[in-house]
Amino acid sequence: MPPLSSGGKAIKERHDIFMKQYAFVIAGVSSGAGKTTVTLGLMAALRKKGLQVQPFKAGPDYIDPGHHTTLCGRPSYNLDPWMMGEKSARDTFDQAMDGADVGIVEGVMGLFDGRGGGFEGSSAHLTEVLGLPVILVLDAARMAGSAAAIVSGFENFHRAVRVAGVIFNRVGSDRHFSMLKEAVETHCGAKVLGCLPREEEIAIPERHLGLVVSGEMESGLADDRAAKLSRLISDHISLDAILALSPLKDKGYAKEKPARREIVCRIAVAYDEAFCFYYRQNLNMLEAMGAELAYFSPVKDKSLPCGSGGIYLGGGYPELYGKTLHLNESLKNEIKSFSESGRPVYAECGGLMYLGQGLKSLDGESFEMVGVFPWHSTMLKRRKSLGYREVTAGGSCPFLEKGQKIRGHEFHYSEIRHDEDVPKVYSAIDSNGERIQEGYLYKNTLASYVHLHFASNPNFADGFVKLCHSLPS
Q1: Which one-letter DSSP state was computed for residue 101?
Q2: Where are the alpha helices (DSSP H) in 396-440?
Q3: What distances in angstroms separate CA 329 from CA 226, 325, 336, one per listed residue?
Q4: Is the pLDDT of residue 72 over 60?
Q5: pLDDT value, residue 208
Q6: Do the Cβ atoms of 170 and 140 come closer than 8 Å?
Q7: Taking a C-beta distance cutoff of 8 angstroms, is the pair 324, 299 a contact?
Q8: Confidence of residue 246 (pLDDT cuts 50, 70, 90)
């Protein structure tokens, strides 16, 4: 066989890329290092090369996965080894990678920042569980040789975590990058993959729960910002070097997906700009248990989907759409009647606020909500609660048997008042190790500030679907 010409070699290399799967974790030295910017830029650049990119998010965040999904055209899955368990995290990763060329896991906080500040639940913990290499993002705006000391520390902190590459963010000039690169290559084992220059235009705006959601950014990140990010990545970072560090396996193997049950009920899922915080795995599990999911908008729709046997109200930003939600009387009345009939309703955080009597925004405006529960929710300037939760069900919990446990996460800037007389069916352990009573119940309507991950106890999803099926719609 004659030797390949340079053109033939390029074709072979491209063919080889598409015959393998690749996966890696983008982790930050700290929050704010630029891992989201780098992650989204890499997703856009690899998609432009024609690769199918499967996105993931370490930890309990909802907003980054929304941007991932918009950009990649594939649902982004949260992977949290504490909240959902190590086996479930591995299985979710394997199943989602079916049909993908590249898996990109965006980390959470700093690489080693986990539950209670420790290793458990951190990006590093997830990296160890999945066996993936780490690409470390470092904000180098005010340093040069010191970058090597930081990278060396991360390389040697935990031997089971492989820091394979480094990307510098907010680099001021070619000379600045050369100093950073020389320092790291002299003292560290990680490969310098490139940098991103200082570019304020690519920053994503933020609000109290994190970045703005993808639907608020015109067409999400499929706009000029995504195109600019892709160009910056392609111009300053070696995509080939990244893939060379992260081969996962040859194509052709797919994790067997669990069989789905026959559809037995329809669950109405609130999904719009006000209610968009859901773990993708939760929705998949409800479908696997026999639910048909019918999406509706509390902001725009005047009625529930026909034939609904249950309602799922996720979290989000109802306070930003208070007036519109307030004015949608027909849907509010239908949801209240649905709850009064004893049919199942499950609400988390923003959904909990929506089911109360009223909602008071930061500027003091008050809006009437659905009125299932007696409380009024009030937005606060400071964070009210943040942390992982382990919930134990009491005897009246409609979806779990007494004593069963399930894990989740709580993060909100609101508080509820006048909830004293509402029955509570959860006993939860907060981030300080203190036991609190939560899980508010009215008939078969269950509301909580805790965002549960159903993979930590599939009986919750099963119990929800079974109750929806057993009661007349």
Answers
A1: S
A2: none
A3: 38, 8, 10
A4: yes
A5: 44
A6: yes
A7: yes
A8: very high
Query: pTM to 2 decimals?
Result: 0.89
Mean pLDDT calculated for residue range 317-342: 97
pLDDT at residue 251 in the model: 61
CB burial of 232-261 (b: ≥16 within 10 Å; e: otherwise) equals bbbebbbbeebbebbebeeeeeeeeeeeee
45: left (phi over 0), alpha (psi -120 to 50) or beta: alpha
Residue 348 · residue 354 · CB < 8 Å: no
Q: Which two tokens stand for residue 9?
A: 């070699």
Total Cβ atoms within 10 A of residue 29 = 23
Q: Which of 99, 102, 78, 76 is nearest to 88 (CA)?
A: 78
- CA 433, CA 389: separation in Å to the nearest integer? 9
Number of H helices, E strands in the chain: 14, 26
Which tokens is 229 given?
């990010």
DSSP symbol at 100: -
Q: Residue 353: which H helix or E strand, with range? A: helix 350-354
Active site annotation includes 195: no
3-state secondary structure of 312: strand
- Amino acid type, 275: F
- Token pair of 127 as six digits: 């990296």
Contact 102, 53 (CB under 8 A): yes
| Catalytic residue selected from 265, 276, 349, 468 | 349
